[in-house]
Amino acid sequence: MTKSIEKTPYIIGKTGDWEMVIGLEIHAQVLSNSKLFSGASTEFGKDPNQNVSLIDAAMPGMLPVINKVCIEKAIKSGIALNAKINKFSVFDRKNYFYADLPQGYQISQYKDPIVGEGSLKINNSNGEDKIIGIERIHLEQDAGKSLHDQHPSKSFIDLNRTGVALMEIVSKPDLRSPEEAAAYVKKIRTVLRYIETCDGNMEEGSLRADCNVSVRKPNAELGTRCEIKNLNSIKFISQAIQYEAERQVEILENGGTIDQETRLFDTSTGETRSMRSKEDAHDYRYFPDPDLLPLELKDDLINKIQNDLPELPDQLVERLITEYGITKYDANVIVEEKEYVKYYENAVKNRDGKLVVNWMTSELFGLLKKNNFEFSANPISPEHLNQLVELIEDKTISGKIAKDVFGIMFDTSKSPKAIVKEQGLEQVTDDNAIEVFVDEVINNNKDKVEEYLSGKEKLFGFFVGQVMKISQGKANPGLVNQILKSKLK
Ligand code: ADP
Ligand code: MG
User: Fold this and answer.
1) Closest residue to atom 11 of ligand 1, CA basis
2) CATH of the domain at 482
3) Residue 411: phi, psi to the nearest 5?
4) Residue minimizing CA distance to atom 19 of ligand 1
5) What is the pLDDT of residue 474?
6) Claim to verify: residue 317 and residue 297 sit in the same structural domain
7) With bands split at pLDDT 50, 70 and 90, how would you rate the model's confidence at 2?
8) Which of 244, 271, 304 is at the close of a domain?
9) In this structure, which ligand is nearest to the CA of 212?
10) Who's near 476: CB < 8 A, 6+ residues apart?
11) pLDDT tens, residue by residue, 111-138
């Protein structure tokens, strides 16, 4: 759920403050049944080498054929990220040797990517938004996987992932803290999930990030960066950035310099370590893939995709604020997942927007978290939450009793009306009934009444508490106050 972004946190060193500069390269797997240039399946979790066509295995003479769905989804993602769609783009070969890359090159886009500059708004709890620049999005093939832990002396290769379409989303170096980087990744994931171009599943590797980190004195020139490869959780991204920035500050403060290099994050120690010195573009000898023509897009296609775009998270935040009167913070929490919005809009019908959002974000999310439940396993239907809020609004039950009812709803999936009826939890709003409680409290506490009447006004709360207690929490608190006041004159 949305976490707040503090104002720019500097690293405080011996020589003063240091600012972190972060740019992310996010690899998002395109949601598509088949691969970028072959008809092989992209299904996750299959046995090794089940999803491999002759093209993916790089058999001689095979020709790649571009997958239209992947092109359309890249365009859709570009539009959703406010980016320029390049009507002319080129697929290049990026040459390198790796055991799990049978072609000996990866088909990627270099000088002419399908999507150019764009931007993304990230949100924080102070109500301050920040715009993060996006440099480009290009399409490329994923590589296979080497398995080194299956046999004492052999390594195995699994080509299921070989050739799966990835969108590489490259940010400008606009991020200034691990929290901002985390918010950026979350927001990218939210947007891509809304438009169904990537499932955003980080555990399955559908979304992973390379983090470029450098440090500098506030407002100085950009420092030399290191790139931490292939982080697949938001927690690791934050940890790796923090560690790496501190490592660089320490080197610089001891008079050293930063070598531009590619580093790995060790999830067990929380440290980064050198993997290789930075490679340059010319090391890969990029050239246009002679098997593929340049990709030329027609305005019709781009316009159609634009017109079919669903409501995007930022638009939704605005709508939820105006339509239901909730705060921007709450709107951002709800908008994080499409399912939350759907649930909220079903639960809020004819009810108070703020009340419903509070029940959802504090009580419901709290219980789900405590019980380790995914939202999809939520035992409380939106209709039942709606009914619960109705019972509060029409004063059938108090807010306090509602919490107990909510707990039972969570455990049993029963409707709140049924629970209230079964357990006789209706709030007492009958003046006469409350008067009986009040009289009892007054009779049992004559000494305290004396003290109260002679000026010890603080005791009023005590009387309210006593009345609530003997009514088992069911007396309407407003009426209790009113009746107590008139009787204690
Ligand atoms: P490459 O393709 O060699 O990795 P790019 O120029 O495409 O290089 O940059 C990759 C990423 O590095 C981008 O996300 C960019 O924002 C980020 N970046 C560039 N310079 C810096 C810097 N000095 N500090 C931190 N990040 C940087
Ligand atoms: Mg890079």
Assistant:
1) 23
2) 1.10.10.410
3) -80, -30
4) 173
5) 85
6) no
7) very low
8) 304
9) 1
10) 395, 398, 427, 428, 429, 434
11) 999 999 999 999 865 668 999 999 999 9
Strands 16-29, 88-89: pairing is unpaired
Mutate to test the pocket of ligand 1, among 136, 170, 210, 237 (most ligand atoms within 8 A of CB): 170
Residue 281 has pLDDT above 80, yes or no: no
Residues 217 and 327 in one domain: no
H or E element that contains 306: helix 299-307
The answer to whether residues 481 and 488 touch, using CB atoms and an 8 Å cutoff, is no
231-276 residue pLDDT tens: 999 999 999 999 999 999 999 999 999 999 999 999 999 999 998 8
Residues 389, 442 share a domain: no
Judge if 204 and 258 occupy the same domain.
yes
- For the Cβ of 220 lying below 6 angstroms from any atom of ligand 1, the answer is no
pLDDT of residue 7: 56
What pLDDT shows up at residue 190? 97
Residues 409 and 479 in one domain: no
Please give the Cα distance from 106 to 235 (Å, whole number).
29
pLDDT over threshold 60, residue 6: no
Residue written as tokens 């995914």?
374
Pocket test for ligand 1, best of 26, 212, 276 (most atoms within 8 A of CB): 212
Which structural domain, as residue segments, surrounds residue 459? 431-488
Q: Which of 253, 276, 304 is the last residue of a domain?
A: 304
Contacts of 314 (CB under 8 A, 6+ apart): 121
Residue 45 pLDDT exceeds 50: yes
- DSSP string for residues in 130-164: EEEEEEEEEEEE---EEE-SSSSS--EEE-TTTT-
pTM confidence score: 0.87
C-beta of residue 427 within 8 angstroms of C-beta of residue 479? no
Whether 93 has a pLDDT exceeding 60, the answer reads yes
236: tokens are: 């690791």
